[in-house]
Amino acid sequence: MNEVPAAIIQEEAARLGLTLTGLLSTAQVREALLPDIDALRRWQSAGAAGDMRFMERSPELFGDLEAFLPGVRSIAVFAISYWSEEHHPPVLPKGYGRVARYAWGRDYHRVLKRRLKHLVGMIEQRTKHSIAYRVFTDAVPLLERAIARTARLGFTGNNTMLITPGIGSFTFLAEVLWDVQPVAESEPSNPRGQCGACRRCLPACPTQAIVSEKFVDARRCISYLTIEKEGTLSEWEAEALGEWAFGCDICQDVCPFNHDNRPPGTVEELTSARGSGSLLNLIEVLGIRTDAEFLSRYQGTPLMRPGREGLLRNACCVLANTNAGEAREALHAALSLDPSAVVREHAERALTRLERAK
Question: Residue 176 carries which DSSP code?
Fold first, then answer.
């Protein structure tokens, strides 16, 4: 049996900038997640997953660690802060679109998976034992937030985000499934804090995607519409994007737990200096005509997720929403030259709206 003192795991994780560490046995996960699996089933039945087929898998799979690593003994879950003192500009410059904070830097999937693999390697060196493992971050059907909550890294907010007092909710979650049996000197205490009577995020959501406490309808969520939704957007969806070209931070920005003085994240690759930052020049985005050009510009960043067609579609919507008349030439060029019928349609619709707004 691979027994590893919990202190060693926590120490090595801290060296790598992994802000919080939680350790759970497979039995703890299996028992604790039963209510969350039931909640997921109700969410799926309501159709709230939209077109995200990967979220329509059997609810039981989302808590079955053995399905991902036969012989797994435990899971280490990490919360990694990507908070910085840089903020969204209060007034959006014409011709630009907003980007959710998590996408300001490099692609967190790649960054964190490398660090988790390095973590396992360091523990193998210290313990002189080989470890069977798999690492994940937001890429497989695991109830990551529920697992992190069970590991006492935070609590579930009304906006469904994991909230950690003193750190907030701007954190990535990542996991290591392994055949390790952590030996803990003491049980961690439950994190303080809860939403209580606070409901700021519900009315703050411009599309009313937070239908009720701890229930988000993805079909109305700006993050879903800009990142996961494929193809043509309806008129309502296009206008719902507002100023957001990729993702949305509104329900987190209004949260009191994100307003206190907090230490910034320490993973340099996740900062805006290493990625695309908080704003996109949408007129420049509209000039990207090929997937190869799109790849050369955004490879290694989260902005790859919606693909060229999706990002240019979003750009058309935001330019119309913000009445960016200076984008007419770029929109006409997209209407005439872009290879995507979806982009051409949204360019035409944006031009029509700009004409009406004169």
Answer: E
